[in-house]
Amino acid sequence: IMNESTELSLTIAQIVQRLKGSHLHSQIERQAKECLHQPEIKLGSLKEDVRNFLKTSGGGCWQPPCHPAAPPEHLKEPLAYMRKAQASWEKRVLKSLNSMSTELGVPLARMRPAVEQKELTNKWNEMGTDEPDLSRFRPVYAPKDFLEVTIPFLRNPNHDSSEEVNVRSHWGLIQVPLNVRDIPKLRQAFSELNLNTGQLGIEDHAHIHPDLFENEYVQIGKKVVEEQDSAAAQQYSRQGCPTGLRADLWALILNSTNQPQDVMYYEQLKAGVIHHDLLVDNLIYKDVKLTASNDDYYFVFEDYLYQVLLCFSRDTAVLEHFKYNSATPPKSYIEGKMGVEECAVVYPPNVAPLCYLYNEPSKLYSVFREMYIRYFFRLHSISSSPSGIVSLCLQFERLLQTHLPQLFYHLRQIEAQPLRIAFKWMVRAFSGYLSTDQLLLLWDRILGYDSLETVAVLAAAVFAFRAENLMEVTSLASAEAVLADLSTLKVMPLIQIFLFATAI
Amino acid sequence: MAGKVKWVTDIEKSVLINNFEKRDWVQVSENEDWNFYWMSIQTIRNVFSVDTGYRLSDDQMVNHFPNHYELTRKDLMIKNIKRYRKDLEKEGNPLAEKDENGKYIYLEFRKNPSSTWIMKPCGKAQGKGIFLINKLSQIKKCNCFIQQNINNAHLVIIPCLLEERSLIYVFMYKLGFCRFCTVKYTPSTSELDNMFVHLTNVAIQKHGDDYNHVHGGKWTVSNLRLYLESTRGKEVTNRLFDQIHWIVVQSLKAVAPVMNNDKHCFECYGYDIIIDDKLKPWLIEVNASPSLTSSTANDRILKYNLINDTLNIVTPNGDMPDCRWNRSPPREAMGNYQVLYDEEQAQTENADRDLRSRSGQSLGSKGSRGSAGGRPTTATWK
């Protein structure tokens, strides 16, 4: 019985996940809101009523997406070797955390004394002014470590790559037989990005005057926001969101409405931060100090970043979501609380660019959390999803090898494997590498297509764009130098040309 | 062409020298015959003093107006703006309108727009002699954004003499930096003596422990614009930038009558503008010599480009300076400059306006935004 109920809750989680962002979801939500005002609906007995209704109407015969006998972990990730790779990666991170905890004598989690709590409450809006000595804490891992650790694990036992030594063999670092889309398939999937459709982020349209397109496009966008139609917003985002409407459109796509209960939830998380001190807080602090605080684009948001990331590390709803993906993050239990509260230890992800869109912490938080749960976690965990980091790496390498074989061969010869350069871009979805306006245009497409594949396409397109210079370099260091500054790139022309003007 | 341009400078900055060398100009000493002199404001005072009686010839050009201080010394600027306001009032110009309390609606002075300001004594620059006034107690309520100010909205002014009447050309530089305080505000008054709390000058901030060498506490204006447009909407953002342009144009109009219309001069002013919590811009001061010291890599790139674009306008093609040259540079030579105000065009536009309104033509949407000064009476300034 125990098993059945976990299975059921997993199934429900999956359905909810699939529903989110669909037109149906916004319809259901609207209907539900209206229903609430009807006198015959009673909140107290709602659960029972729905159950009875489903029974009598014959609903509830939904088939789970996999074989009924499949073990629950299959729901998370169907490929055993992927599960294994993710598990050993997590073990490594946890071990590193534990040893840091023992070494430094800092508990993974502890209750803050009252004085400290008060102090933190007072400086909540200016945590950046604090300068604790963090030299003892070392970052648990960098993108490079993730890549290094990941590659050897990713061998499919049923697939011997040494057998196929022919022209079709893969020259890249990733040697797993996953299906990733090639250019013809990408053209189908990303058809709105074609050369004849108007795009925000492209200034010279062949057919229409850019001002004309933009004016009309902004009007449509306003209408989408007015209608509060999540599916329409997602479709709209494929051609890019106007700067003034982006915040609303993204929130709509992500169904993150910032209702009073969201604000309350955020306040609860904030209280959690104030009450408990986690070892990870130091790592978050250090990470922000090392990255965002030194970044031309993001340093002004330093204080917001602490707020959001500290709350994120205490959000148990994030843990819920790990029930249906391959990752099972290490949890730390707060002493004296009997393990009621669990805290996830996940890689601090890309929140900084969102600070450009939302200046209200609770709103910023809820959009960020949705972005993470839908997309960015896939960049930090090993899975077979087409938007997972493994697939993106493979897709990047395949695109490069197929369409720029000379360049790939040259770089491989001088021991500058392209993935070693592109990995850090992809793992952060280009955050911190592109100028902010360009980054947001890229993320418009991630949301619009509900896929991270544009990240792999852009990585390949950057190599194509700098191919001439790259052909002349003779070392990894000089290849890295050629690709060091991406802040002047215009992403949409690059993606468009690579996808639709490459000869196939 | 009549030989290579001979240049002098008393400011040994690579952003200048690299630009001169790029044009293949020849360096000479100040005692020799020179064509182009990029000088400090101390030097211009000496060159144009009554004692020396120095007169510039047609092929000589300097980067300051002899009496730039009419705008860049704060007391004189205030005096000039007050006089301008009075003149407008006499004319019955709607810009000089007053509200029911007798306060000017558009041309208002405030000692401390939001609650605390930096005071800079007259005649001193780059953070020397700065002190803080007022209490910091209200600041806490503002979000972090209000604590920042736009700095260095660079522009070049190129006047020239035509038919005994001076015409003003103003070019606004599209790039610029917002400067931020690297130490955050605290409500406690003991912080008042913390010199780093409020300042926008690198000269002072560099000594703060929090000084960051990567970004130097500076944010580009394009990032500011992106942030504002994303969080507050396009209309509000456009209005703010229109108002900033309006301030620049009005400040220059205010000093126009007292400026020597020396055709050998141009000036690259740096406008310090602060934005309050209602997104209203306030003019703090104007600098005649924006710092050319580059504190970060981005800073260096921006300043190199600024000088480059400036030289492209004042000495087209790197040719010999000629004070009778054609004033309207082609679009492609403008770099990151945009025409903010063109007096000649403004006058023709006024003449054409009736004609145009009758024939029903509208101004191009992009073109009209550039010339903010052309429509002072319609400026939104609330």
Brief overview, please?
The complex is a heterodimer of chains A (504) and B (382). Chain A is an all-alpha fold. Chain A has helices spanning 2-19, 23-36, 46-57, 72-76, 80-104, 114-122, 143-153, 183-189, 210-227, 230-237, 243-253, 260-275, 279-290, 302-312, 316-321, 361-374, 389-403, 405-413, 418-427, 436-449, 453-465, 467-472, 476-482, 491-500; strands at 109-111, 276-278, 331-333, 342-344.
How would you portray this structure in words?
The complex is a heterodimer of chains A (about 500) and B (about 375). The N and C termini of chain A lie far apart (about 55 Å). Among the domains of chain A are: about 1-60, no CATH class; about 75-140 and about 260-375, no CATH class. Chain A has about 500 residues and is mainly alpha-helical. Chain A is globular, with a radius of gyration of 24 Å. Chain A has helices at about 1-20, 25-35, 45-55, 70-75, 80-105, 115-120, 145-155, 185-190, 210-225, 230-235, 245-255, 260-275, 280-290, 300-310, 315-320, 360-375, 390-405, 405-415, 420-425, 435-450, 455-465, 465-470, 475-480, 490-500; strands spanning about 110, 275-280, 330-335, 340-345. In chain A, strand 3 (about 330-335) and strand 4 (about 340-345) form a beta hairpin. Helices cover about 55% and strands about 0% of the residues of chain A. In chain A, the strands form two sheets. Chain A has a two-stranded antiparallel sheet with strand order 1-2. In chain A, strands 3-4 form a two-stranded antiparallel ribbon. Chain B has about 375 residues and is an alpha+beta fold. Chain B is built from ten helices and 15 strands. In chain B, strand 3 (about 35-40), helix 2 (about 40-45) and strand 4 form a beta-alpha-beta unit. Chain B is globular and about 60 Å long. Chain B starts with 5 loop residues before the first strand and ends in a 12-residue tail after the last helix. The interface between A and B is medium-sized, with 25 and 28 residues.
